[in-house]
Amino acid sequence: MTTELTGTGALIGNAILSSLHHNLAMTFRRQDITVQDATGAQRHLQEVMELRRNMQDTYGFLQTELEQMQSRLNNLNISLNTANLDTDANYNLIPSVNAEVQGLGFVPELQAKVQQAKTSIKSIPEVCEDQITPKIKAWLVKLNQTQDGFKNYSKRLPSLSSLSDAISDMRASLDEFKADLQYYDYVRWSVSAIFCILLLIVSLLMLAGLVIGASVVISPTLYPFHLQDQLRLTAVYLLYISIGMMLVFSWLFVIMVFINLLIGGNAHALVCRSISTGEIFQYMDKQDYLFISLDAQDPDVSSTQSPTASTTKGTTALFPNVTNGTSYQVTDHQWKPNISSSKIMEGCATGISLFYTMKIDKIFNMDQFLNASIFLTGFSNSMMSLNINLNDILLKLLNTQATVQQFKYSSYLDQIKYNDFRVLLATPLVKTDLDTFAGELEIAAQSANDTIREKLISEAANARQLATKVRLQDSYRLNMSSSINALENISKNYKTNADNTLLSMSKTENALQLEVPHIVQDVSGCMMEKGENLLTQYLDVVRYVIIDQALSCLWLPPSLDNLYTATCRNLIGPWNGFWLSLGWCCAFLIPGVVFSIFATRLWKPALATNKEPFHMPKDIINKSTQDKYLTMDYMTGKRKGEDTMKNNCLVYWTLDDVMKDSNKDFKGKEEKGVTNT
Questions:
Q1: Which of 379, 569, 600, 624 has the fewest CB atoms within 10 Å, counting from its CB?
Q2: Cβ contact 348:553 at 8 Å
Q3: Distances from the Cα of 309 to the Cαs of 6, 138, 148, 262, 301, in angstroms?
Q4: Cα(275)–Cα(561) distance, rounded to whole angstroms?
Q5: Sign (positive or negative) of CA dihedral 162, 163, 167, 173
Q6: From which residue to which does any coiled coil extend (predicted)?
């Protein structure tokens, strides 16, 4: 607004010139024509006056010389005709124009006044700027006062400092325990990862044992006879290992789940459940320190002086605290709005600003605070009363008009008898041609005696000199004729041109008197509208920044939801997905252990306690090669590494001995309690 107002004067001046452009152009052009008429008439009249003097002087000289020459030639008694040695035109009859020249002595003044009028009209922007600048400076002072008042009154806007301090304290507390929470989270994930790995190993061992044992029981024909008991033993050993690991680490699982349920459950019950049920909002509503900065403030505080231009005592604040459009007077008992935290959260979730959810509008009227008309009341009155004084320019136009009228009525160009000038100037100055007469004298001198010859030659030279004067006189005559013709042309139109000039200047004068106030009003109104638009845009930005940005709480619900999810569900929630999966693992492993114990007892191979005699045939011969592999004599005879016979005991073979590798030596087993008989 300051930038726009600074150029108001020049803008008004240019608008005046622009609106009067056609009239001014016509006026300037007609003024130039009148000045040309006046200067041309003065110049030609001065030239006619000068030529008249020169021509009359030359005329007298020629007339005298011609009379003397005629007398001298007549005394010589020559045969030449000297009767034509005389002037034909009488230049002494040329009218005098001294009065007309003196009557145009004001022409330089006319030129100066016309130039001053042009300059003054072209300087209208500077004149307007010079007149407007002091007013603009005074307005800018008031505007700055309004700005200061606006800033001061903005301090009445209820502050959220108490809520901000509470949030800052909470954030400080969170930052204080941030390292502990991170360490707890790190330990939890580390321990959980280890336990999960153990559970995975136990599960894999149990699954492997169950799969191997079940496959042998369900489909025994898939495996060789001698591998079935080995697979059963492998399955049994795997199940033993998994059961043993479960017994070894089960107390750790129990302690971990117990601690998590105890600590996390209590924290979840105290904090998270109060958030989900809304009890925490009731708790926050009871904390007075959260919204203490929203209390209504005293409007008469010096720091919150209203932006009125008047500073006299008793001046009421331009922006009193307003409730529902009515003036609100603050008493000793400060009013505090009844704020509901739950409604604030609901409003934030739907995009409503804190300005309304916290009921700040009840103690601070934003519409009145951001009302542009209040700030522009005095300013608009000053702008609408703006005027421009162009009396000096009008006075110069009037003086120019008077000079033009003087030229019109005092020049008397139309009263000059131009035909008399033409008649006089049309007649030759001398009746005879002096150059031709001089030639005749020279011819006559050739036939004359010496004395007459010298005189005739002298007279011929004198005639030639007079012919030069005649030619000079003819040039004067031509120049005067040209000036007389120019003056006659000027005299035909100079009054009409002067009337046109006076008419145009009158129109310009009337336009300056009548149209300039309207132009000033239009420009000032446009400036006022532009200033109001600028201020309205600024106040709209202020409203947007305060209500829709600074007091926007769209971020609050998702932020609290994220905090609730990260803390209550993922960190301290006892029944979140991670701990629930760990519990399900434990729950599924318990029946797995029971089933494993049952399976190990069912699938364990029975040990031989009563060995039945196994009688081998005398010989075992490979019929294709006829080789003896094993004979009874050998089994009852020599043994590998021994040379003695042991006939005092019987050798029996069990199924286990038979299943051994045939490449190994068989060792007989003595059956206890069997005698030689």
A1: 624
A2: yes
A3: 21, 12, 11, 69, 17
A4: 10
A5: positive
A6: 52-86
Tokens representing 513?
């008197």
Burial class (CB in 10 A: 0-12, 13-18, 19+), 105: exposed
Calculate the alpha carbon distances from 218 to 44, 590, 591, 593 in Å.
146, 24, 21, 21
- Return the amino acid letter for 461: A
Amino acid residing at 248: V
Mean pLDDT computed over 535-554: 88
Max intra-chain CA distance, the chain: 226
CA distance 568 to 562: 10
The values of phi and psi at residue 505, to 5°, are -65, -35
Per DSSP, 642 falls in state -
Mean pLDDT, range 474-481, rounded to an integer: 91
For residue 647, which phi and psi values (nearest 5 degrees)?
A: -95, -5
For 259-286, what is each residue's pLDDT tens digit?
666 766 676 777 777 777 767 777 766 6
The answer to whether 238 and 538 have CB atoms below 8 angstroms apart is: no
pTM equals 0.56
What pLDDT is attached to residue 503?
A: 93
- The mean per-residue pLDDT over the stretch 623-640 comes to 48
Tell me the range of 35-49, 62-76, 350-364 where mean pLDDT is highest: 35-49
State the Cα angle at 157 between 152 and 158, rounded to 5°.
135
Question: Minimal CA–CA distance to 160: which of 363, 16, 395, 454?
Answer: 363
Q: CB under 8 Å to 345, separation ≥6 — which residues?
A: 281, 556, 557, 560
Measured CA angle at 190 (ends 184, 191), to 5 deg: 90
Of the listed ranges 191-195, 334-338, 597-601, the one predicted with least confidence: 334-338
- For 627, the enclosing helix (H) or strand (E) is strand 627-631
Which residue type occupies 6? T
- Rounded to a whole number of angstroms, the CA Rg of the chain reads 68
Using one digit for the tens of pLDDT, what is the confidence trace for 75-103?
887 777 777 778 888 888 888 888 888 88
Q: What's the burial of 274, exposed, middle or buried (CB within 10 Å: 0-12/13-18/19+)?
A: middle
Q: Contact, 487 vs 41, CB < 8 A?
A: yes
Residue 478 pLDDT: 92
Encoding tokens for residue 238? 């795997």
pLDDT at 645: 43
What 3-state DSSP class applies to 670?
strand
Helix pair angle (124-154, 8-19), 10° resolution = 140
Of 217-226, 576-585, 592-601, the range with the lowest mean pLDDT is: 576-585
For residue 323, the 8-state DSSP code is E
Round to whole Å and give the CA distance between 66 and 309. Answer: 98
The answer to whether the beta carbons of residues 573 and 268 sit under 8 Å apart is: yes
